[in-house]
Amino acid sequence: MRFSFEPALRRFREAGCAVDGDLVRFDRGFVAERLAEAPGSFTLHARNPERHVVVGGEHLALAPTGGCPFVLDPERGKRPPTAEDHATFVRFTHAVPLFDLNESGIVEPADLPVESRHLDMDLDVLRWSDKPYFAVGATYEGSRDSVDLAAIVFGGRDAIAERPVMLGIVNPISPLFYDDRMAGSLVAYAEGGHAVVLMPFTFAGGTAPLSLAGSLAQIVAEVLAGVCLVQLVRPGCPVVMGGAVSELDLHGGEPRYATAFHGLAMLAAGQLARRLGLPFRGGGGFTGSPVPDVRAMRESLMALWPALLSGAHVILHAAGWIEGSLAASIEKMAEDVAALEVFHDLLAAEIPVDEEALALDAFREVGPGGTFLGAAHTLRHFRERVAAGPREPLDWRAWLERYEDPGMDPAVEEELRAFVARRKRELERG
Amino acid sequence: MRFSFEPALRRFREAGCAVDGDLVRFDRGFVAERLAEAPGSFTLHARNPERHVVVGGEHLALAPTGGCPFVLDPERGKRPPTAEDHATFVRFTHAVPLFDLNESGIVEPADLPVESRHLDMDLDVLRWSDKPYFAVGATYEGSRDSVDLAAIVFGGRDAIAERPVMLGIVNPISPLFYDDRMAGSLVAYAEGGHAVVLMPFTFAGGTAPLSLAGSLAQIVAEVLAGVCLVQLVRPGCPVVMGGAVSELDLHGGEPRYATAFHGLAMLAAGQLARRLGLPFRGGGGFTGSPVPDVRAMRESLMALWPALLSGAHVILHAAGWIEGSLAASIEKMAEDVAALEVFHDLLAAEIPVDEEALALDAFREVGPGGTFLGAAHTLRHFRERVAAGPREPLDWRAWLERYEDPGMDPAVEEELRAFVARRKRELERG
């Protein structure tokens, strides 16, 4: 594995790894020891204790798409996102109970300076939502800012180091390379004690070999190298394994979504994560369609089901992805939520089997050829089925109307805003 | 169970069952003996031997929607179907390799007399396709006609009794009732030695109790009663268990599709079929949407995936269903085929793991930070991946252009048409 971030190379050298220039060679025993330090599951702490999220075990946490350079405005079409769009997506994500996790950076506000917008985006999530979240930092300094901002809200860096409140995404540069930004971000999250999601996103035949086994082997290598660095920074720090293998259209070169190859890779990556004892991040509802049309729904559900079946503990990009992640669509997000609600209910459902559930009295009352519409058993269970039954899907406007500000202690908010203002001045000075 | 069809009651009486008027009470041991006679899997024989279909085991056979009183014309909207529409759907189903089974009666041609149109529809399937198929007969006489028509093509009634060529659908009238038409159809198919698909289609709180366990118990009772009758007519005759539990909107009374309740019932019914040792028919891509829009695709895929995961051996209504089966949409059918192709490829896919698949030489050649685009390994596997890679989905017009007439021996065709003409005259005379 190559690492260009000198503090990472230093840690590997100090740990006795074979480091040759920027190339690190990993010893099998060393990797196994570091892997054993990573927890199999952990709890993400929310501002609202009712929204704590367990990552691992039998739990599945969902989050919308993120990192989109455009927004697909339902009225004006595709355009650069604004700070207001970002806040809207954060509120939308807060309003939808299906989303366990909020997310900083769903869209990249083009009206905010690139060097400091991570502060505004994390502030949005901390202020307008009380769910655990994905932070947006993607450099050492940016991710350190993410941790510092959270520390203000959650009682200081020491407190949150023991009680992680955020997930940080780290994408290795496939194949087998962590650059300054990604390794730096990893180190900053690990220093803060927060969960690092190691997410290789590969294209077979481009950034990975043109074979499933080879691509999966590469993903595992990239994840394990990241696990080692995280554990060297802070033993026991939570790590989540991700891994997607997509296909390039071998004629035109553009990526293809929702293929069997992608689905199979997702299922296999989930198995590998279980083998390694790491929580797994799968996902999501990928499509190449530039609008939330029938094709978009078909592709995203054919991509999403394998992720849902992979045993994933966290699914990012579960909703609202459009045009190969180029844009976030709030309209599509609401449609995807309607589909995910069915899956959520399916996971939560049970089949009680007892005399009442078997409706023995109803069969006696109704008999062959009759109707259960007015049967005593039906009337007895009518209310509970209405309550448990399918919901009418809400559109995006209805979801936004449901948003309720979780509020924030004014002193904390003031401190947050002061931190953001100070860091912005520092960053503007360079 | 109630049966209004006297020949069915007679068979139950002769077998020693307790028959009280039209009510048949089944002894546990008697049912177990009949169930043991039904095969766990069987082969459906096609005109083209390459298209034989195994029903059971690890096999999944797909068929489009059927029985629709309307067609959703892509240009003219919803309208009564014609004989030409029926032939078009048969050709479409023949042209799509994904469909293992063709189907008589995808739409009900309103321009053909109701008492004889089953002859025209079965003739379409026999003439324009060489796949095994669902026959359309739904009375004793109609299903006997289906068998007689097939006998002309496949070498006589005795030959096809040993080598079934068709599936006949029999829907009990839930709860717990087989009327003259359905029991008659069952008897005619079983007399001919053809596979009977017993398909209770229930609505919880209407035609079944308002509970999953009660609805599932009812389905099992209805299927087992049908199994007993089939085996009394012809021991060893193949039977397929179906079973769907849908929800009614308890406010408005209309059916709801793609709900968690429906999905869970599908998974449970599949388990029950395995427990009983019967092949299972699941499905399908249900939606209440009257047009092939985003909602239709969302609902149909959220209904279809549980069916695909239920261990179903046959899925009817896998494609083209619209508006609660009121209409068949060829446009939606092509969209559904595109989704099912991904699932088909996923089922068929393997992950070879050897030195070549692990791409060890490619990792040596490319190294960390490089690209696999021009690597020797990529070039070596380029062709096979292009061949195995995702297909560009075809729209319905492109599928119809791919249709190739399988042809038919003119003497056989003449005999078929003569039979149809003679039976039509008989039926018109009443």
How would you portray this structure in words?
Two copies of one chain form a homodimer. With 430 residues, the first copy, chain A, is α/β, with parallel strands linked by helices. Chain A has two domains: 2-347 and 410-428, TIM Barrel (Alpha-Beta Barrel), CATH 3.20.20; 350-391, no CATH class. Chain A contains 15 helices and 21 strands. In chain A, the strands form six sheets. The first copy, chain A, has an eight-stranded parallel beta sheet. In chain A, strands 8-7-21-20 form a four-stranded mixed beta sheet. A three-stranded mixed beta sheet of chain A has the order 14-16-17. In chain A, helix 4 packs antiparallel against helix 15. Chain A is globular. The mean pLDDT of chain A is 96. At the A-B interface, helix 8, helix 9, helix 10, helix 11 and helix 12 of A face helix 8, helix 9, helix 10, helix 11 and helix 12 of B.
